[in-house]
């Protein structure tokens, strides 16, 4: 009788484990399908805004990264049901994870190669850094809100992006010891383009940054530095970002 009870106990335990595993597999498959649907929506939005972007489609490598990176791993638990909606989501401390369309456009504008070194200002929850890690050789990311920086590092490690370099600090001044960078992405709006970031941009490199005032008109601006270190800018499209904070 004792052996029968023991056997029943272990059968129940195994059944629970199998049920949990099955639920996990089903959930991951659902998230994967949602990512593919999201990419289709982004492709449509790019086509709809082609006059701003001067292009009708994004690089396939960018779209593949969006299909692969699990956005649900980079949002709070209560936001997971909305992880693959094409809109920003709150991540705490007055910050947001950017709209996937905007993440896709900003990433595409950098024109990254697999050998490139990139810098992100405003790690947030780590999602943009993970997208960059799919496209470049190395990613450095700075977050001024310490609890968010710690959470982002945890999110990135859990999702398998532990090679992304993160730290807490004022992103206005960049990451001088890791410079120069082929690509720089700023995920908060600034009143002007920070001179330290221009300096840390490698000749031939690109930076994408929202410029404007909080709660007023903002524009995504593409900054390019040619091989002679001449800097040019191009206004891309209107956006809405949280402000770049710090002592600058």
Task: Based on the model shown, name its key terms.
alpha/beta, 7 helices, two-stranded antiparallel sheet, 40% helix, 248 residues, globular, 23% strand
Structure description:
The protein is of the alpha/beta class. The protein is 40% helix and 23% strand. The chain is built from 7 helices and 9 strands. The protein has helices at 2-48, 50-53, 60-68, 100-110, 127-135, 146-158, 195-200, and strands at residues 89-92, 95-97, 117-121, 138-143, 165-168, 181-186, 201-212, 218-225, 231-239. A 7-stranded mixed sheet has the order 5-4-3-6-7-8-9. It has a two-stranded antiparallel sheet with strand order 1-2. The chain starts with a helix and ends in a 9-residue tail after the last strand. The model is unreliable at 18-24 (pLDDT under 50).
């Amino acid at each position: 009788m004792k052996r029968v009870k023991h056997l029943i106990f272990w059968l129940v335990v195994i059944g629970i484990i199998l049920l949990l595993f099955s639920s996990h597999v089903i959930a991951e498959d659902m998230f994967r399908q949602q990512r593919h649907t999201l990419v289709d929506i982004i492709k449509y939005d790019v086509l709809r805004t082609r006059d701003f972007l001067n292009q009708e489609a994004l690089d396939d490598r960018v779209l593949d990264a969006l299909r692969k990176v699990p956005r649900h791993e980079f949002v709070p638990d209560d936001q997971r049901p909305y992880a693959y909606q094409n809109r920003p989501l709150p991540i705490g401390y007055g910050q947001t994870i950017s709209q996937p369309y905007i993440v896709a456009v900003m990433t595409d504008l950098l024109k990254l190669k697999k050998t490139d070194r990139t810098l992100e200002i405003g790690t947030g929850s780590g999602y943009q850094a993970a997208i960059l890690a799919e496209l470049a050789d190395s990613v450095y990311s700075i977050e001024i809100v310490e609890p968010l920086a710690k959470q982002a590092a945890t999110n990135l490690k859990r999702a398998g992006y532990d090679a992304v370099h993160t730290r807490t600090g004022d992103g206005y001044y960049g990451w001088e010891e890791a410079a120069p960078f082929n690509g720089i992405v700023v995920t908060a709006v600034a009143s002007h383009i920070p001179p330290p970031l221009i300096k840390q941009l490698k000749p031939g490199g690109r930076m994408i940054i929202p410029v404007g005032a909080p709660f007023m008109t903002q524009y995504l601006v593409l900054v390019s530095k040619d091989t002679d270190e001449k800097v040019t800018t191009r206004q891309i499209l209107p956006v809405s970002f949280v402000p770049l904070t710090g002592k600058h």
